[in-house]
Every structure is written in structure tokens, then in C-alpha cells.
Amino acid sequence: MTTQALTRIGQIWKRELKKRINEAGKVASGALIDSIDFKVVQTKTGAKLEIAYLDYLENVNQGRRPRGNARPIKAQNGAVPIPALEDWIKLKGLKGKRKKGGGSLPTLSLAFAIRASIWKRGIKPANIYDQTLKSVGDMLNPLAIPPNTPEPLRIELQRIFIDMQEDANILVENMIDKIIPSKTIVKQK
Prior knowledge:
The chain is mainly alpha-helical. The protein contains 7 helices and 3 strands, in the order ααββαααααβ.
């Protein structure tokens, strides 16, 4: 694929992934959306599309499996890190209530309670990465050609779409994911 074609696909990919994240309601600080970018890189085998995003996109996309009553609940064992939850709680303006005696829970206590709940029940997958792949693929669907298109043009467009789909399949197989480590410091909206 040419650098120009990869750049156009990268622009579409970036737009679609950001759209899916917004539609799924997975925006707190905006850091994940802001991290999504792409560039075309030259390798020994030719130009490739490098997609960049924060490391926790995987957890947003695939969710977190429930672990039930397994112990201990620690970040080293795959639990959500407490500092990340504290930042998220502050961004969302969440307040926890004590069961006994009234009053609100400290942010740290609420973070531990949320982490325990995620550990026990998991988080449902958003499948935004897969939806983005499908959306970009659908844009290359020969069935998207308007039905009133003259037959010779329709045949030529179908050939073009099929060639583009083959190129897109090769692109996906050769795409480079650049995962950016997230930090516990989260940008305020």
C-alpha cells in the first residue's frame, strides 16, 4: 500500500476508534481519546501503519474477567491499580456513603471498594477495537455501491473494492500497535 493510502486509512481508523470510545461512554479524563494516533513508518518490507494508544485500551476493549472470591486482590495479580481508580473517582466526582453512621467514604476507601467489585464481577467488554476494524472493513464493502450505478461502472467499482479489501486484510496483518504506558497522573477535563 502507498504511504498516501496508509495515511488515509490511519485517519479513518483514528476517527472511528475515537467515535466508538465516545459511543461506549468510556471517556473520563479524555486521556485515552487524546492518545489515539497513527503514523506511517517505513520498514524493510515497506510502509506500515503504526497505531498508538494508551495501554489500558485493551482493558476497555476486552473488559476484565470476573475473578469471584479469589484472593489476594492486588495489582500484581491483575487487579485495577488503586491510584488509577482514585484519579477516575475524582474525575467522575463520585462519593461513596458509609453503611453505618452516615457520612461519605474517603476516596481511598471507595477505590478499594470499586476494585473489589471489579475483581468479583468483572467489567463487560466494550469491543471498540473490533467494532472499529469492522467499521473500516464495511467502508470497503462492494455491496455499498448504490443499486442504480450503471453495470460497467458497478463491475469496475466491485473490482476496486475487492482489491481494497485484500489490501486492508494485508494491512491489518501487518499493522503495528504502539502501546503507550499510562501514568497515574490523569489530565483534568
